[in-house]
Amino acid sequence: MILDVQGATKRFGGLLAVDSASFTVAEASITGLIGPNGAGKTTLFAMIAGFETPSAGRVFFAGRDVTGRTAHLLARDGLARTFQIVQPFAGLSVRENIAVGAFLRHPRRADALAAADAVALRLGLGPMLDSQASSLTVAGRKRLELARALATEPRLILLDEVLAGLNPSEIRDIIPVIRGIRDGGVTVLMIEHVMQAVMNLCETVHVLAQGRIIAAGTPAEVVRDPAVIEAYLGPGAAQKLAAQKLAAQKLAAHG
Amino acid sequence: MKAILIFAAVAALLPVFVTANTVLNFAVFTLIVALAAQGWNILGGFGGQYSFGHAAFFGIGAYAVAILQMRYGVNPYAAFAAGIALGGIVGAAIGAMTFRAGLRGSYFALVTLAFAEVFRVLANSLAFTGGAAGLLIPLDVRPENFQFASRAGFYWIGLGLVVLVLLLSLWLSRSRLGAHLVAVRENEAAARALGVDIFAVKLQAIALSGAITAAAGGFYAQYFLYIDSSIAYGTWISVEALLAPIIGGAGTVFGPVMGAILLHALGEATRHLFGRIPGVDLMLFGAVLILVVRYPPRNLWRRA
Asked: Which residue, A134, A139, B147, B238, has fewest beta-carbon neighbours within 10 Å?
């Protein structure tokens, strides 16, 4: 297990954002974290990546207890993240943006720039290397976000909705890129709403609803799980769906 | 690199062609402001941490040079070096307090302003710093005493300091620290996610920044041989140190120097055109600032 989250809890005043969530991520896997809006996924990510300190619970990364360890140290340990709302260094070029990440392992400028170029090529940002980051399209910025995180040469990368806001063809283009990251030896944990991508990419999916992990399994398993259906569609939804299905079958049989 | 060497060579020739004291005096003063502005630019331009109180560092350098010479008989060059080191230390101390507390933006600006004011009030009231009367460094014109008969001597040393910091800024802009500083300026959360220790980066920047601006203050004291609290810790230098880089291009290698030259040339020109109407040059500075903020000249000499 490269990541082991045990009872992670985050309280903001009276609001319980994450309620003792426990799950693990296997090394070299693509693992998904899904759940309805407001479930606490991003807060859970923030706790894992060192941007928020858990109110309770522990986080183990590569066998070490990293609970409360701050973000830049975790990045040095090999845990990278992207942001749901992309955060490019707007005044810098694409190459300079990626180089900030590459400088983590390559103190010399020439090495960092070479590493940045290599990552950019892998992610299809080659032609844009000299453009200003602020001039990129949404899809380009998402790729830049990925490239910068990858340039830190992580062991585990947390992707927070990298597909949100992309059109279907852009999503189709980026799915192999994510698979390529994993095939390059980097474990991927992704928050994602685009189910087509989750079904396509993830081996294991954890479902978070109202701060709690309510289900886990393969993507096919969790989408059939009544608890998951109710979390998305409201209480009684699973029963209603089952009844509708039954009615349709009866109708077909009689018809 | 080439641009810096050309600038150094051309500027070094000035005293060869011009011997008028008024011109050289103007040039030395411009170099002092340029140096202070270069210091501000490290923290404010590259790092995006806008200080409104760089007078704090200017004053430390100025008072260190005066006090160490007058009260402790320290060699002026050594006193100058000590002033630079003190500027760095005070910078680190102010940085440790403010950045540890997470102060940013206008809060950081106000706290730096407060530090400069506290120093000014202290220097104005303590006997150790000469109180309101200030400090007059005894005239003793010998090169080994950091005093020159000709203003050209001061001019070349001032130019040497400015060129040195130009080279330092160029190195910074290509270094890991420089990349981290710019990342902190652009987006702190993203920088942290990429392994940037934003506290350490800001601390290094403010120490370097404080040391450079203290050098400007120390040089000022040695050139004019007189300082008091409202010169050394006055708002004027805080304002000029930030105005010059913003006008010339904050976060660029040449910006602070170009800005300082432009500001002072404009100031002189208006004084010649309009005579001594008090504040007319400041009105012009204001107009230039508005123009520059509206149309940032950032890309003019960005890649120096």
From this structure: A134
Does residue B118 have a pLDDT over 50? yes
Contact A89 B190 (CB under 8 A): yes
**What's the CA gap between A30 and A162, in Å, rounded?**
14
Query: In whole angstroms, how far apart are CA A217 and each of A201, A233, A239, B120, B218?
Result: 13, 20, 21, 67, 69
Least Cα distance to B257 among B6, B85, B65, B82 occurs for: B6
- Beta carbons of B186 and A89 less than 8 Å apart: yes
The number of C-beta contacts closer than 8 angstroms across A and B is 73
What token pair was written down for B285?
């500075």
pLDDT in tens, B75-90: 999 999 999 999 999 9
Report how far residue B265's alpha carbon sits from residue B206's, in angstroms, rounded to the nearest whole number: 29
Helix (H) or strand (E) holding A65, with range, is: strand A64-65
Q: Quick check: A210 pLDDT over 60?
A: yes
Asked whether residue A27 carries a pLDDT value surpassing 60, the answer given is: yes
Distances in whole angstroms, Cα of residue A34 to Cα of each of A2, A16, A207, A211:
19, 18, 5, 12
DSSP A77: H
Other CB atoms within 10 Å distance of the CB of residue A27: 12
Residue type, B253: V
Least CB–CB distance from A87: residue in B185, B187, B197 = B187
Contact A161, A191 (CB under 8 A): yes
pLDDT at B303: 41
Question: Which chain A residues are within 8 Å of B192, Cβ to Cβ?
Answer: 51, 70-72, 75
DSSP collapsed to 3 states, chain B: CHHHHHHHHHHHCHHHHCCCHHHHHHHHHHHHHHHHHHHHHHHHHHCCCCCCCCHHHHHHHHHHHHHHHHHHCCCHHHHHHHHHHHHHHHHHHHHHHHHHCCCCHHHHHHHHHHHHHHHHHHHHHCCCCCHHHCEECCCCCCHHHCCCCCHHHHHHHHHHHHHHHHHHHHHHHHCHHHHHHHHHHHCHHHHHHCCCCHHHHHHHHHHHHHHHHHHHHHHHHHHHCEECHHHHCCHHHHHHHHHHHHHHCCCCCCHHHHHHHHHHHHHHHHHHHHCCCCCHHHHHHHHHHHHHHHCCCCCCCCCC
* Exposed/middle/buried for residue A245 (C-beta within 10 Å: 0-12, 13-18, 19+): exposed
Reading the block at residue B184, the tokens are 């902190």
- Calculate how close chain B gets to A105, using CA atoms only, in Å: 10
**Residue A171 to residue A176: CA distance in whole angstroms:** 9
Best of A45, A100, A132 to disrupt the B interface (most B CBs within 10 Å) is A100
Task: Give the CA distances from residue B158 to residues A83, B83, B217, B301, in Å, rounded to whole numbers and listed in that order.
Answer: 47, 16, 11, 22
